Amino acid sequence: MPNVEPKLSIGLWCTAFAGTEVFGSATRPPLDPMDNLRLIARAGAWGFNFHDDDLVPFGSDVQETDRVLQETRRVMDGEGLVASMATTNMFAHPAFKDGALTSADARVRAYARQKAMRAADMGAELGCSVFVMWGGREGLEVEASRDPREALAWYRDGVEFVARYLADSGYGMQIAIEPKPSEPRGDIFLPTAGSVLGFIATLDPAVRDRVGVNPEVQHARMVNLNFVHEVAQCLDAGKLPHIDLGAQKPGRFDQDLRFGAEDIKETFFLVKLLDDAHWDGPHAFDVKPYRSDTPDDLEDLVRGNIRSYRLLLERVDEFRADAEIQELLAECRVDAAGVPDDVDALRAFAFDVDELAARRLPYQRLDQAVVELLMGVRR
Amino acid sequence: MPNVEPKLSIGLWCTAFAGTEVFGSATRPPLDPMDNLRLIARAGAWGFNFHDDDLVPFGSDVQETDRVLQETRRVMDGEGLVASMATTNMFAHPAFKDGALTSADARVRAYARQKAMRAADMGAELGCSVFVMWGGREGLEVEASRDPREALAWYRDGVEFVARYLADSGYGMQIAIEPKPSEPRGDIFLPTAGSVLGFIATLDPAVRDRVGVNPEVQHARMVNLNFVHEVAQCLDAGKLPHIDLGAQKPGRFDQDLRFGAEDIKETFFLVKLLDDAHWDGPHAFDVKPYRSDTPDDLEDLVRGNIRSYRLLLERVDEFRADAEIQELLAECRVDAAGVPDDVDALRAFAFDVDELAARRLPYQRLDQAVVELLMGVRR
Amino acid sequence: MPNVEPKLSIGLWCTAFAGTEVFGSATRPPLDPMDNLRLIARAGAWGFNFHDDDLVPFGSDVQETDRVLQETRRVMDGEGLVASMATTNMFAHPAFKDGALTSADARVRAYARQKAMRAADMGAELGCSVFVMWGGREGLEVEASRDPREALAWYRDGVEFVARYLADSGYGMQIAIEPKPSEPRGDIFLPTAGSVLGFIATLDPAVRDRVGVNPEVQHARMVNLNFVHEVAQCLDAGKLPHIDLGAQKPGRFDQDLRFGAEDIKETFFLVKLLDDAHWDGPHAFDVKPYRSDTPDDLEDLVRGNIRSYRLLLERVDEFRADAEIQELLAECRVDAAGVPDDVDALRAFAFDVDELAARRLPYQRLDQAVVELLMGVRR
Amino acid sequence: MPNVEPKLSIGLWCTAFAGTEVFGSATRPPLDPMDNLRLIARAGAWGFNFHDDDLVPFGSDVQETDRVLQETRRVMDGEGLVASMATTNMFAHPAFKDGALTSADARVRAYARQKAMRAADMGAELGCSVFVMWGGREGLEVEASRDPREALAWYRDGVEFVARYLADSGYGMQIAIEPKPSEPRGDIFLPTAGSVLGFIATLDPAVRDRVGVNPEVQHARMVNLNFVHEVAQCLDAGKLPHIDLGAQKPGRFDQDLRFGAEDIKETFFLVKLLDDAHWDGPHAFDVKPYRSDTPDDLEDLVRGNIRSYRLLLERVDEFRADAEIQELLAECRVDAAGVPDDVDALRAFAFDVDELAARRLPYQRLDQAVVELLMGVRR
User: Fold this and answer.
1) Domain span at residue C354?
2) Single pTM value for the model
C-alpha cells in the first residue's frame, strides 16, 4: 500500500496541443475546452490544470470569462473533476517576445502582472490550490541585452507582486515557480530547481512562504541532471507545492513524452521518493501527444501516464517488502557508535582510514536487484 | 527462443580496473591476469577480451610474452573460456600523450604500428576472431595542433597497415574500429559509429572488407545519440564484427556501468535488433566496477551483465509472441498497392494528402504496451 | 588573400521565418518571396537557397509554378543573385507526420518522391548546383514503430530514386544529404555527418558519386560534436558539395543563430579548413531571425553573417602570416627520418619510448596565440 | 579602467597535476610545493589556493605540518604571494570512495570533519580569506544507495559543523561550496550554483551568513548551462565569496582548460559582470595542464590565464566606451512612465498589446557589434 494515494492531474494544453512547431503545421484540429475536460475525466484523471488562455480565449472580456468559468464548473461537477492548478500564459503572445516579468519594457512587465492577476482570479474561482509561474520567455539569446542581475530583480518584483496579490485577495493558492534551462529562449533565467530555491531565499520574507518550486522531470533531463535529486532538494527545503511529470530523451529539445516512457529506473525512484515523503500535492502530467497522434489517441495518452504511475507505485511496495534488498540496504549503513562528536575529541581521534577504505558496499548486487524488480522478475 | 544464442564476453581490463582516476587513487589491489580469467569464467562468461598490456606487462620480452600466453592457454582450456577479442593499448603510455597513429611525430606513429603488430600476434596465438582498434588518444584539445584532414590520412595509413599485416600474416581476425566522441581527449577523431563507417569507405579496397565498427552503447549515450540506430546502421552496412555493451547515464563522462543498469527500453531494443538480425558476433561487456566495489563484488558485476542480457532476450520473445503488439505493428504499415513506381506515372499521380495526413498510428498504445511488457505485467 | 573567394548564400526560409514555434505564434508578417530575394541581394549575398514551398505555395499547379519561376528569374537577373541550392520540404505537411521517405506508409514514400522530383525540376530550372535532402521527419519517437534497418533501406531507395531522376533528367545537381540528430523528431535517422558518409557508401555505385553531405554547424553543436572535424571528414572523403553555416549554443534545441555569434575559435578553424582545402562550394547561411526581430532587422541578420565570415577569413590570413605561430606549428612535427617502414625491420626496431614521452609540445603557447590573434591583438 | 583590479590566483593542484587519469599514467614528474609556489609567483599570479594534501602530504603529523607551513610562509613572503583560499581534499583517499560528509558510514562523516578542521587550521595559519568545500564524492551511481533527503541532511550537518568550527576558532574565512553535476560520481549532490544557493537557505541561521557559493565556469558548461547567469544569481543573493575560472568544451568530462580558451563571448560577459558588480573577491584559475605539456609549459599555462583575463577586461572598457553599443542598449529599454503600479488601476488599464508586440529591438546589430568588439575591429 502506498503511503499516499496520488492525485493525478493533467494540463488542458497537453491534450489540446494540435502539433504546430517550427518545422510543421498542426496535425490535429482544435479541441474545445469542455470536450477536453470530459476527455480527461473519462480517461481517469483526478484533476486538470490550465493556463488562462486554455479555457478563455485571449482577449475575452469579463462577461465571456465568467460564462466560460461557469460552464467549466458545470462540467467539473458533472464529471467529478478537480481544478488543480492555474497558471498564466506569458509566452505565446508576441508582446512577450523578449520577456514578460523580465522584459526591459516596463509596460510589458506591467501587462504581465495584469494578466497574472486575471489568471489567478480564474484559478481561485475554480478552486485551484496552486498557481504555477513558468517564465518561458524570461531569458535571452543576446547576452548583451540584459544585465542578468537586473533581470533577476525584475523577476523578483514580479513574483512578489503576484504573491501579494494572492494574499491580499484572500486566495489560498501557493505559487510554484517552474524552472527550465532553455527553449523557447536560448537561456532561461532560473534554469533549474536549485536556482528557483536560491531565488526564493531572496524574496521578501512577508511572501516567501507562499512560494515554492514546480520541478519538471523533462526540464532536468534536457540538461542531463538527476531529477530525483532535484525533487529531493525541494522536499528537503519544504518547497514542493506541485510537480510536473512526463518523460524525455536526454539532452534534447523539450519532448514532453508520456510519463514512464523513458528512464524507468530513475522514474521509479522519483515515485518512491514522493511516496517515501508522504507527499500529497498534485502530481501533474505535463506531456504532449506525438504529432502523429490522431484525436482518437489522446485518451490513450492520458491513460498511459496514469497506468505507469500506478505500476511504479506497486513496484515501490515490492521494493519495501523485498527482504534481500532491505538487507543489502541495511548493510550499507554504519552508525555513529564510538565516534566523537565534540571538536576537541574529534581532533584527537585516530581513525583507521584503511578500514574505512576497505569496507564492503554491495552496490552491484543492490542495483541489479532493483533492475530485476522493475522488470517484474522478483515477485 | 532467441534466433541466436549470444556469445557473452568481457574485457580483462574491466574486472582489473583498480579505481584510479583524476580525482582519486586506486581502491582495489591489482588483479592477477590468471585469477582474472578464472573469475570471469566462474561468473559464467563465454569469452574474454584483452589489451596486450592486460595480459603481458608493458615492456616484456618475447620469452616472457610466450610464457604468459602459454599459461593463458592452459587456464582457458581448464575453464572452457574463449579468447574473443584482442586489442592494443595505444593510450596509457606517455609516449602516446598526443596521439598514436595520428601523432604528429612519425616515430610515435611507427611505434604504435609495432605495438599493434605484437598485440595482433598475441590475439592470433590465442584464437581471437576480432582485433579492436580504439584510438583513445587520436584526438586533440588544441585545434591548431592538427590539420584534421592530415590526422585522418595518418589514421587511414595506420589502419591499412594493420589490416595488411593481418592479411599477410594469415590471421583471420576482423578489425573493428571503436568510435568515441571525447575522453580522454577533448575531441576524438572518428567520434561516432557513423564516422567510422564513413572512414572505412575511404580505405584501400584491398583491405576494406576486413574492417568494421565496434560500437559501444556508452559512447553513443555520452552525446545523447540513439545507439540502437547506430548499431542498425552498422548491421545495414554489413560492418558489425563486434559490439561493446554497458550502460551510461546520458551526457556525462564515460561511466561503463553494468549492462542493463540504465535506459531499459532502449537497451531492450538493442537486444531485439541484434537477435532480429541473427547476429552471432561477440557481445562484449565493456564495463567498470564502481570505485566502491571491493574485489568480492567483481563477480556480481560480471554476473549482472549476463543476467540482464538474458532477461531482455526473454522479453524479446514475449514481444514477438504478444498478439496485441503484433496487431498494432501491422496497423502501422500500408503497402504499396496502387502507387506508381515509374517516374512518369508518379509525376502524374494525384495523392490525397489529407487522407495521408489523417491516418491513425496507434503509437501511444504501442509504446505503453512495450513499457508494460518490460515491467513484466503482460505475461 | 584567401585561397578561394567564398560564395555566400542564404535560405529564403531564413529571412521568411515568421517566429511560430511550439510556445508562441508568429511575431512577423509573411514575407513575399520576391521581396525576400531583393532583401537578400541588397544585404550582399551572392546566392539564395530555397525549398519548393518557399517560392511556390504548397499545392500550386504547373502554370502557377512556371509563373513564379519566371518572376524569380527576373528578380535574380535584376539583382545579380544566383540560385544556389534547391531542396524539398518533406517535413511541414501533416502527411509527413511520421516520415517521408521512411514512412511505413508506401503512399507517403511515393508522394515524397513525387514532391522531390518537382523540387528538383524547379532547382534545375533556376540553375542550382546542389539539391539538398534534409530528412527532418525521417525518424521516430517510438522505437517499436520501426525496424531501423528497414527505415535505412527505404531511405536508401528514396535517395537512389532521386539521384537517378537527376541523372535521367540530365540535371547537373549534386545531392547533399543533411544530417541532424533530433528535432523535430525525437531521434532522426542519419544523425551526424559521419552517418551520412557511412550511408552513402551503401548506395548503388551507379549513383553514389552524385551524393554527398550537407553538414550544418548547429546540428553538430546540438550534440556537442566538433564540427570542424565533421567537415574535415567530408572533405577527406571528397563528399562536400554544400555546407550550412550558423551558430548554436551547445546541447540545446536548434537555434540557427547568426554565423559567428558563438564559439569564435572553432568557427575560425572551420573557415580556415574550408580555405585551406581550396573548397569553392556554396557557403550557405542557415540561420533564423530572433523571434524579437522586426522586419527591419532582417537585413542586419543577413549582413552580420557575411561580415563575420569575411572577418574570420582575414584572421586566417593573419594566422598564416604569423611567424611565431608558424614556428610553433613546425616545432610540433617530427618527420619519419630513420623509422623503418618495412614490417620485419619495424618489428625489430628499438624505440626509445621515454624520449617519445618527453617530447615538448608548446600547445599552451600555440593555443593562447590563436586566442589573441582572434581578439585582434597580434596585428 | 576597470572598476576593480582583479585578484588573480591559481590552485597548487593545477600546475602540480601530473597527468594521471583513467586511461593513462602520469606524463610529468611530481612538482615540489615550494617550487610550485615560486613558479606561480614568477608567472604573475597574485595568490595561490591549496588543498591540505597539496602542501602537506596526507598523513603528516603536526610537526611536519608546522614545518611545511613555516616554509610556505617564507616562500610567500619572498615572492610576494598571497594564500587566497584553502580547501580540504575529501575525494582522493579510498576512505571517501562512497562519500565524505554524506557517506552512509558515520565514521567516514566524522573523519571528513576532522580533516576539514585541520585544513581550516592551515588556511587560517596562512591567512586565507576563503575556505572552499567541494564535495567531489558527495554523490552516487546507485540511486538505491541513498535517500537523497538523508544525504542532504548529512551534508547540511557537515557544512554547519565546519562553519561553527570557523566561528568558534575566530577564523575570518568565508565558506564557499562548489557545485558540480557529475564526475567523479555519476551524480553529485548540489550539482549547480542554484542548488547550492537553495541549500544555503536551509542552513542554521546562526552560520548561514558565513556560507556562499564557489561557482566554476567549467562545471556549468559540462551541462550546457549559462555560467554568466549562474554567477549573476550568486551576486544577486550576496553569496559570491570566490569564483573558479577556466574553460571547457561543452557537454563533456571536466576539462579545466586555460581561462579564455573557449567561448570567448560568454567569457567576456562573465568578466564584465564581475567588474560591473565591483566584485573584489579572489578570481581563482582552476585549470589543468594538457597531458602533453612538459614542466616547461606550466608557466605558459599560468600566464595565459592572466593574460586573457586582462585582455577581456580591456574589452569591457571598450564596450562601455562604445557609443553605438551604448545607444543600442538605451534603445532596448522603455521606462515605466504612465504604467499603473496600484492593483486596481492596473486591473483596469488597457494595454495596447499590438504596440508592445511591434516594438523594435535591435539585437542583431547589438550582438554583431559585440562579436566585432571582441575581435578587435571596433578600436
Assistant:
1) 322-375
2) 0.98
